Input
Amino acid sequence: METKLEKKYGLITAIAMVVGIVIGSGVFFKAEKVLTATGGNLTLGILAWVIGGVIMISCAYTFAVMATKYEKVNGIVDYAEATMGEKYGYYVGWFMALIYYPTLTSVLAWVSARYTCVLLGFSITGGECMTIACLYLIGSFALNALSPVLSGKFLVSTTVIKLIPLILMAIIGTIVGIHSGMTMINFTTVVKKVNTANALFTAVVATAFAYEGWIIATSINAELKDAKKNLPLALVGGTFIIMVVYILYYMGLAGAVTNQVMMNGGEAGAKLAFQKIFSSAGGTIVFVFVIISCLGTLNGLMLGCTRGIYSLAARGFGPKPNIFKQIDSETNMPTNSSILGLLLCAIWLLYFYGSNLTKWFGFFNFDSSELPIVTIYALYIPIFIMMIKKEKDLNLFKRFVMPIISLTGCVFMIVAACFSHKLEVVAYLIIFAIIMAIGALFSKKQSLTSKNQIN
Output
């Protein structure tokens, strides 16, 4: 008998899930970069958050329409298969497993460690930071591999915790800033003159990291009541809430400290902002919530890492699919896939340290926290084009208007990345091409044996 997932989620729950999935460390990590990229121009920084948010909202709506049409299909790999075919789905999955998940997971381990070092007074570029990053990476893997249930509870609890510093700073920081005049000072003072176009491109690409994750929310469509109506509402409503919260948090910081302090201090500037608004002790407590938020996001990304190669192996693709599709009967975890996922995270963490902090790799230094995300937007383009071409039963708005807006947003993100990262894009594309060429060696579908568990 076929078991089907129950329709158990309502609209409010779905919106909460979208917000919980997307909101994480990105806004804490990238708020300072957006401000620095725009030369302390608060208005231009807010515009960057708006543009990044609009791109997210339009793409989310387009995928929501697709999700309600292919109601049993979940995840970007499956949407790629449904529109472009099995082979394209494989290459998207290979990219997700080998580049996307491990690069972002390694960056999150480092970000979590960096905030921890700020809290403890350690150097954020020295060995202490990398040691803590490795411990967080291993700890997250152990939590997912040994106790998936506990990992899930940790993920849920951090969803609530991660909203606390954002909402508190957004509301109280803004009120205090308006009362003290700090907000007005920051809106009317530009720290450094910059080229507006280049600054905006750089800032928008930075916001992409903070906005990433909404595509995961499409996986709830099979369990959502009245999915055809509620999923688009949940994705658009949830992503809009996220954009508003991020912008208000950004303004809250501007009400606490000057743009110059934030630009010079980075994470330390954020800590100072929290302490100025909530007192030294209160600011420290709220800053601890920021670290917990980062660790919660790290835990969620590690969940994706552990299943990266497994998702390919379960389809008969990739290296040794009969090995990597095995599931441990006790923990219900794809053990072999998990181990490979951890190894990939460690490699990309080493790369991030060598590329972004010490410049070991010369020409091949690039920002692994942003360019893989831009690649995802590039991979959306064929999917949106095929949606326009194939889905003839959709109305004008769903078939043409929103997909074209989404396509425009994806192209904008690619152009922005080229302007902001310049030769780094070439270095990244070379490494990307090598990894995808290796993936081509394993692109032939293989037959699977019936045994899929480790006893």
